[in-house]
Specification:
Elements: E1 14-18, H1 23-38, E2 42-47, E3 62-65, H2 74-77, H3 88-108, E4 118-124, H4 130-136, E5 141-145, H5 149-156, H6 158-164, E6 177-178, E7 181-185, H7 186-190, H8 200-213, E8 217-221, H9 224-238, E9 242-245, H10 266-270, E10 277-281, H11 290-302, E11 306-310, E12 336-339, H12 344-348, E13 353-358, H13 362-370, E14 375-377, H14 384-394, E15 398-400, H15 407-418, H16 423-440, H17 446-460
Parallel strand pairs: 1-2, 1-4, 2-3, 4-5, 5-8, 8-9, 10-11, 10-13, 11-12, 13-14, 14-15
Antiparallel strand pairs: 6-7
Helix pairs in contact: 3-4, 11-15, 15-16
């Protein structure tokens, strides 16, 4: 569904967007940029050189690189670029980014001939340093949260978790219920990767929450029929306008991929019976040990179900070549296909896909909901355990692997969702949830109205036309 530009906007206002430089954050920001462009706004994308987007896929946008333009700047040049260490860039950019952003905005806010005035700045919520810079120009800053509303409320509760001593509990309490969020277990919030409100992660989330409260509004990649109660709580607690719309239903994220898509498997997929193939992908950042990779492989093969498995070249820690840890070339048999990267939304929408074994990142979770595909959830860290718990225990459109990657549990979960009689209920609930989402997009629906409200809100900002 690609909405046509609204003639009332007539591209006389510019919106500046600034994504976090990681795939799971770039995708929704560029989807939002496409949505706003389709509604008549001119678009400028600020980005770092690290994980810079492919500008050729967006000739209708203006791109400007900031922050790490100097290859000799040791603040940025010596940072890790692979694996979990790459996320250290978030802390460095937040610490040193204000001056560079201020200089860039200063130039952009001086209008040239025939240039539309800047209406607002939209940044990833993790870029909390941008709020003070926007304030210095009296420029409205909206926040894009790339996680669920539920996850945001959990992050806002980190000080409460700390004060209640959750982070000091030993392993005997991992299965205990979290009183403030009964759907969660203690092990779920420990997987956030935070051990105190005062450690690096706790302070990052605390600053994110604080500056989100100070923003002019929050944009959520979700829909009210999925997170209605959370929307009401956020609206009450934060008292800034919130706009909830499911980006994947407007534009796919395929053009913003940092990796090249493999499409050679589609003829094979086209030949598979409906709902017979398990799609497997653990996202753009997660990594596993070799022993876990082999457990996953055996679990898939032992399930006797056809599967399409995305394995990035850096997915297995310490591997020098792709798939070197598989036992042999014949191990997968005729039922399995392994590829490096795929256009995920297109795969999930394929009639042959019967379930999705996922790391439960929010983009993947929402894309699965959009296509009515049941999930087998195997989260790593951060918001992923929270998403997995909601999908399995609240909406009941999937099951959770509770004990990491064990072949027997993987095989059992696949069988439960794709083969056993009980899996029919999971599949049906996934289809019903998709139907609710589809209805929200029809004129008068919650997502339709939220998009209209967002466009009207951005259009209402005063702009300096000098």
């Amino acid at each position: 569904m690609e909405n046509q530009p609204r003639s009332t906007v007539d591209r006389n206002r510019r919106v500046i967007l600034f994504p976090l430089p990681f795939q799971g954050h770039i995708n929704p920001m560029l989807q939002l940029a496409n949505i706003l462009y389709s509604q008549g706004f001119s678009i400028t994308i600020l980005h770092t050189n690290f994980n810079a987007p492919n500008t050729c896929n967006y000739p209708h946008f203006t791109f400007k690189a900031i922050l790490d333009n100097d290859p000799h700047d040791e603040r940025y040049s010596n940072l890790p670029s692979q694996g979990f260490g790459a996320f250290s860039r978030i802390f460095v950019f937040n610490q040193y980014g204000a001056d560079a952003l201020r200089e860039e905005l200063k130039q952009m806010l001086v209008l040239g001939k025939d240039e539309p005035p800047v209406s607002c700045l939209i940044t990833d919520g993790i870029w909390y340093f941008t709020q003070s810079v926007a304030d210095s120009f009296n420029l409205p800053r909206l926040v894009l949260r790339t996680s669920s509303l539920f996850c945001f409320l959990v992050y806002a509760s980190i000080p409460i978790f700390d004060n209640r001593g959750y982070y000091k509990l030993d392993s005997t309490h991992l299965e205990d219920q979290v009183a403030e969020f009964p759907v969660l277990k203690v092990k779920d919030i420990l997987k956030l990767g935070i051990r105190s409100k005062n450690d690096a992660g706790g302070e990052l989330m605390g600053n994110m929450v604080k500056q989100t409260k100070a923003s002019a509004g929050i944009i959520w990649n979700s829909f009210k029929e999925l997170e209605g109660l959370e929307f009401e709580r956020v609206s009450h607690d934060f008292q800034v306008p919130s706009f909830v719309l499911p980006f994947p239903k407007h534009f796919t994220s395929s053009s913003s991929s940092l990796l090249e898509h493999d499409r050679t498997f589609f003829p094979w997929l086209d030949q598979q019976p409906p709902n017979s193939v398990l799609y497997v992908s653990f996202g753009s950042a997660g990594q596993v040990e070799e022993k876990d990779f082999l457990e996953i492989a055996h679990g898939l093969v032992d399930s006797k179900q056809s599967f399409l498995w995305v394995v990035r070249p850096d997915f297995v820690k310490g591997s020098s070549t792709w798939l070197e840890t598989l036992p042999d070339d014949q191990f997968l048999g005729e039922k399995g296909r392994i590829v490096k990267w795929v256009p995920q939304q297109e795969v999930l929408a394929h009639k042959a896909i019967g379930a999705f074994l996922t790391h439960s990142g929010w983009n993947s979770t929402l894309e699965s909901v959009c296509e009515g595909v049941a999930m087998i959830c195997s989260p790593f860290w951060g918001d992923q355990p929270l998403n997995a718990r909601c999908m399995s225990d609240v909406w009941k459109v999937g099951v959770c692997l509770e004990n990491g990657w064990q072949r027997e549990e993987i095989t059992s979960a696949i069988t439960r969702v794709m083969v056993d009689e009980g899996g029919e209920g999971i599949q049906e609930r996934a289809r019903v949830l998709k139907q609710k989402l589809d209805v929200s997009l029809i004129k008068g629906g919650s997502s339709f109205k939220s998009l209209e409200s967002l466009v009207d809100y951005i259009s209402s900002f005063h702009v300096n036309k000098n």
